[in-house]
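Reopening this ticket.

The earlier resolution said the output was attached, but the attachment link was broken on my side. Pasting everything inline this time so it's all in one place.
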Amino acid sequence: MSTPFTTQMGQLGHDKLEELKRQRTRPRTPSPPPVLSSALPPIGAQIRPNGQLYQPRLLGELEDLAFLRDARSHREHVLLVGPPGTGKTALSEAAFVLDAVSGQHTGLETIVGTASTEVADFVGTFVQNPATDAFEWAPGPLIRSIQNDVPLLIDEIALIDPRELTVLYALMDGRGELHVTQNPLLPPLKVGPNWFVIGACNPDVPGAHLSDALLSRFHHHVEVTTDWDLATDFGVPMDLITVAKNLESRKEQETYEGWIPQLRDALAFAETSRRFGQAFAVAGLLRKCPSQDRSEFAAAMKERFGDHDALSLGVRVPAGRR
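Inline output:
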């Protein structure tokens, strides 16, 4: 038997439901296009040295490419942090490809750091010429960046022993001069107006570490995440984007700590799906996921793609199909 109170609550619930229905069918006003600050003129889309198109992204109200070029003009070193595959290297390359000189450089010099990277990997070393048996000086990417007056990108900078990175200190803190003790014949090298450092790293990778002294020399610290709208434009299936976004939301709520596919993974998934079918692409992505996270990631994928096993070799191909 209903009471005035339950009748009133039922009517409120009905009214709320009807309002939600009207909202779903009501034409939506499209979101206004992002507004770029007039402080920096945008550069626009660029073709990276590998031939891939880079679409600029917003950094606050600035275009990311214009921001990097402005940071260079003020010698404000930039540290890019984020998971692998989010576009840290792509951004750096696209920002300076306009300055490429054929046969000399692509607009910047790059070194990829490892736990074994040493000062010699930055400045260079003497290499024996097989034709003459004489040892000749081969400059490294740091010296080449100074000689060509282009930025230096240090990829995976957080994996390099901090003691080896002290070679950058005098160059980054305003002194702007490099003394190459490995080659006493070289005079001190002074940096030009177009030289500065871009560091890129995944801070969550095991062994990642940057000293306070180096961190303080980076004027700007920028987090780089995946642009899922761009992934949509590139043909990444919406189901995969939904999975990734849901996992990102769970990570923010601290209910998920595992692996999340980024733009590079998503583009590879789309290409694999196009060539070999979605089931094969799902199996491959499950195998790509680190083993410690695979069970939980597979459960998230199952909601959109069904149940699949991680990719692995099976039985021998039947003789009649060879």
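Reporter confirms the inline version is readable. Residues 258 and 292 are 8 Å apart (CA to CA). The radius of gyration is 26 Å.
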